[in-house]
Specification:
Layout (H helix, E strand, L loop, with lengths): L2 E5 L6 H11 L4 E3 H9 L3 H8 L1 H16 L5 E3 L8 H10 E6 L3 H13 L13 H19 L4 E3 L6 H11 L1
Parallel strand pairs: 1-3, 1-4, 2-3, 4-5
Bound molecules: shikimate-3-phosphate (S3P).
């Protein structure tokens, strides 16, 4: 059936969506960030803090290539993973890419909740204040949407549920 890569902005619910989609398609689910963490014995936050973002991106790229060469699965990747030509091509050449696209208002609400809860698992949000959130989202979307929009399929995950996508996908095969 091939691999399905789930991409999208931080907070778009990629892991949960991918997990549900995988269950519906009776395929394994792989979350790239969790795989990076178990391989390196460190959390994503620790890798960012101790080794820096550049090192994280290198690790992310290596593990992505490995997953792309492996067995079929539904694979959720971090928000920055598809945002370079090499990684995007790795995904597109080994499977189909699905972008979970949410309106910026919804992203704003979700990220605001993460900031309020002082979530520490997302290093890019560390130190971000509520008043910076708007410009953060604007900047990130400006940099990233051109990559995200190269996906094979773009869905709003609030309306196209994993079960619906799984049904359509199966009937398309
Ligand atoms: C990142 C998103 C994170 C994680 C890392 C960097 C990003 O994953 O890969 O903190 O650059 O957007 P989520 O998109 O699952 O939060």
């Amino acid at each position: 059936m091939g691999k399905l890569f789930i991409i999208g902005f931080i907070g778009s619910g990629k892991s949960t969506y991918a997990q549900e989609l995988a269950a519906r398609l009776t395929m394994p689910h792989i979350d790239l960030d969790r795989m990076i963490e178990s391989r390196h014995g460190k959390t994503i936050t620790e890798i960012f803090e101790k080794e820096g973002e550049k090192a994280f991106r290198e690790i992310e790229s290596v593990i992505l290539k490995e997953v792309a060469a492996g067995d079929d699965a539904v694979i959720s990747v971090g928000g920055g993973a598809p945002c370079n030509e090499v990684n995007l091509n790795v995904m597109k050449e080994s499977g189909r890419v699905i972008y979970l696209k949410l309106p910026r208002k919804v992203l704003h609400e979700r990220l605001a909740t993460m900031i309020e809860n002082r979530e520490t698992s997302r290093p890019l949000l560390t130190g971000l204040s509520m008043s910076d959130l708007n410009s953060f989202i604007t900047r990130m979307l400006r940099e990233r949407e051109r990559w995200y929009l190269q996906a094979d399929v773009v869905v709003d995950p609030r309306w196209v549920l994993p079960e619906t996508l799984a049904r359509e996908w199966r009937s398309d095969m």
